[in-house]
Amino acid sequence: MVNTNSPVYEPLIWLIKAVSVCRKHNTLLVERCPNCSRRNLVMDRRSSPGFCSHCNTWLGKGRTSNLNILDHESRIKAMMVERLLKNIAYRLRTA
Fold first, then answer.
1. Among 14, 65, 72, 90, who pairs with 28 as Cys (CB 3.0-4.6 Å)?
2. Cβ distance 20 to 77 under 8 Å?
3. What average pLDDT does the chain have?
4. φ, ψ of residue 64 in degrees (nearest 5)
5. How far are the Cα atoms of 7, 8, 42, 74, 80 from residue 28, in angstroms, in the given order?
6. Measured between alpha carbons, how far is 5 from 7 in angstroms, rounded to an integer?
7. pLDDT score of 37
8. How far apart are CA 27 and CA 66, in angstroms?
9. What is the pLDDT of residue 21?
10. Residue 6: CA count within 13 A, CB half-sphere
């Protein structure tokens, strides 16, 4: 049964998972480490930006794709999530 007194929401992380491209670097996001082939743990105590959370390999080097050949929908999703996060950050700063 649905509780109508509770707010309906989707965790922000679900929306971010929809992003598959980096607009800044014009590349597809890679889901698995090229060294150990494991998925990176983003929200984990072992995670460090740019490094695999399992084998500590630098993730900045690897196969890249040109965004010019990527579909329009992927770029729009990335732009929308980017704007959403900037808006949230702004509201938190001004609250």
1. 65
2. yes
3. 75
4. -125, 160
5. 34, 31, 17, 9, 16
6. 7
7. 95
8. 6
9. 80
10. 6
